[in-house]
Structures are given as C-alpha cells and as structure tokens.
Task: inverse folding
C-alpha cells in the first residue's frame, strides 16, 4: 500500500506557478460549491485526494518522473519565452503535458464514470435482469483517472498538427487557473451552431488553452480555421483586459470545485466571475445519443450509441482570434462529428492498435 495517501491530480509544480508572492507554498482559492474565498491555502493540501491513482505507487511514481520533465519544460517556456520546435522531442513532451493535464483531473475521472453509468443504463434499461433496479446503483471503475492517463499517450498524435502560441498578459489583471485547467473550446463550430461533439481532440476548429502562470497562457489551435497574430509570431501580447476576463471566465466555468490564483486577484474580482459564470456551470459532464432501432443486412435488430462531452459555450469573443473567411464557407451537412484531419485520425488508430497488441 502506498505510504503517500494524498495524491495530487494537479501537479504541485503547476500550482506553485500561481502561488502567493511566488513563495511556492500558498495559493489563493475560491470554492464554488461553498462560495468561500480563501486568501492563503497550503498548496500541499490542494487538488489532491486519498489514493486517487490507487493504493500502489506505480502510477504516482511514473507521474513524478514525468512531472519533473514537464516542470522544466514549462519553466523554459515561461523564462525564455520560447516554445518547442514542431515535431521535436520537446514538442512531443509538450503535447503529452497538455493531454495529461486534462486526463488526470478529478473532473476527468468523474466524467469517465458518468459516461460508463449512462451507457450501461441506456443499453440495459429494458433488460429483465436489471430493469427493476438499474437506477438504484451507479456503474463505474475504481481509479478512473488511472485508466484515462493510460490512453493519454495514444491521444498525442491527434494534436500533432495543431499550431501553438504563447499569450503574454500585458494587463494589470492576472490569469487564474483551476482544478480542471485545460480548456477545450471551438469558436468555429459554436459559430456554425454545430450539433453534438465539437471539442474532441480531432475536431475541426478545436482550441486548447491552459494558463501556465498569471502572465502566460498556452493556446493550441487549428490553423486552417483561425488566425492568431502574424503567422510567424509565436508570442502574442494581450493588452485588452476584456480578453483576460474572458479567459478567466472560461477557467471558472471549466472548474469542478476550486479556482486558484495568486494574491494579485481580489475577492471582488472573483465575485464578478462567479456572478457571470454560475449560469454556465455544467450540471452534467457527458451526453449520450441513442439512434432509432434499425435492421442490419442479416435482419438483426440494431441500435447505435454515441457519447460526447458536455462543452462550454459562452459565445466566446477574443480580440486576438479571427476565424478565416474560407472557413466560414464550411458546410456542416448532417455530420455529427467534424473531423479536422482524417489522416491524423488514421495514424492515431494505427498507433492505438499497435499499443494494444504490444500490451496484451
């Protein structure tokens, strides 16, 4: 059994970047459920849960190795204002950091179990073995974050084609973060009023954003859809405080329980975020679609199911992001999923199959 009962689902190195007076020990927070503002909380006791990755130390130990690598990579970006070169080793590690910051969270774990529960109950709701009591229990797996982390490596190839830039905060308002800091958004498909899944990693128009300290935000995006600064410009200065407010609102809405920030953020500012964001807070994490009954070529009765995440939609408008004119002509058709790059998906599937074969 692990001697370390408390296991962090947000790395401490990451939270230290938002620490008060850069002391690396304390951080300010707002608990959404209790509506409590705490000016100084110990980072050691934040964004963690008992045996979150299981009672052995295998996952936790492997994560500690990765976190040292990620910490150096993020520090390099912050201090040198230099992003990895495309298709380099650091590019791969950079993308692995991005994916892991979404897959290891408490929000992700709950979303996975919510998906399993909804899927099982929908499929078996008329089964005589379960129908009388199926709503009396919940279906899930132990340590779901461990499973989610396990597929992170297979997801990295899907976002290899995305452009990425660093947003540099030039205003007097600091960036905040949360216990679910990676934001997936899609201004393009929101603008198009697309139905269903719009923030899958392979979706056309995907935007992936995460703050790395109060002054810097990383954004990955579909460059065939958006223009962010000049094409060769890697560092984008943000001078409009409204843009900072919008990104902070997204963090607030994305969170599960807590938002985190340094002592440059005051209670009144957080209250304003709360008043704006509370109507957008998600009451569910996943959606399940059930097709009408149909018959296959052999005459067998069939039905299909599809699950997708509950996305944040606030009609986001950021002054530094423009949707390209050619993209506005894109026809949604009757597609449920709008894939950005079919070849990337095929390559990812091949890697996934190879991964499964080698681990069976």
Result:
């Amino acid at each position: 059994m692990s001697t370390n009962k408390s296991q962090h689902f947000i790395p401490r190195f990451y939270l230290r970047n938002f620490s008060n007076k850069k002391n690396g020990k304390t951080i300010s927070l707002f608990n959404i459920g209790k509506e409590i503002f705490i000016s100084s909380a110990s980072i050691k006791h934040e964004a963690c849960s008992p045996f979150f990755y299981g009672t052995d130390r295998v996952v936790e130990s492997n994560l500690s190795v990765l976190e040292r690598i990620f910490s150096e990579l993020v520090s390099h970006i912050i201090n040198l204002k230099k992003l990895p070169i495309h298709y380099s080793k650091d590019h791969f590690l950079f993308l692995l950091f991005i994916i892991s910051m979404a897959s290891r969270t408490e929000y992700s774990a709950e979303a996975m179990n919510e998906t399993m529960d909804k899927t099982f109950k929908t499929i078996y709701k008329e089964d005589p073995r379960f129908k009388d009591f199926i709503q009396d229990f919940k279906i899930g797996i132990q340590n779901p974050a461990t499973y989610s982390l396990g597929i992170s490596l297979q997801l990295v190839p899907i976002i290899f084609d995305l452009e990425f830039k660093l947003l540099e905060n030039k205003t007097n308002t600091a960036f905040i973060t949360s216990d679910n800091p990676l934001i997936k958004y899609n201004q393009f498909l929101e603008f198009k009023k697309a139905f269903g899944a719009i923030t899958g990693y392979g979706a056309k128009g995907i935007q992936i954003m995460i703050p790395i300290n109060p002054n810097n935000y990383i954004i990955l995006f579909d460059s065939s859809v958006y223009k962010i600064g000049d094409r060769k410009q890697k560092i984008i200065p943000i001078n409009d405080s409204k843009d900072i407010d919008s990104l902070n609102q997204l963090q607030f809405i994305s969170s599960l329980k807590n938002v985190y920030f340094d002592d440059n953020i005051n209670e009144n500012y957080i209250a304003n975020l709360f008043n704006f964001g509370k109507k957008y807070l998600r009451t569910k994490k996943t959606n399940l679609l059930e097709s009408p009954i149909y018959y296959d070529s052999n005459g067998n009765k069939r039905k299909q199911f599809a699950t997708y995440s509950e996305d944040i939609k606030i009609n986001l408008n950021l002054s530094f992001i423009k949707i390209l004119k050619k993209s506005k002509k894109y026809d949604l058709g009757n597609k449920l999923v709008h894939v950005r790059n079919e070849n990337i998906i095929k390559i990812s599937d091949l890697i996934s199959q190879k991964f499964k074969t080698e681990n069976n």
In short: The longest strand covers residues 36-42. The CA atoms of residues 165 and 234 lie 5 Å apart. The chain has a mean pLDDT of 92.
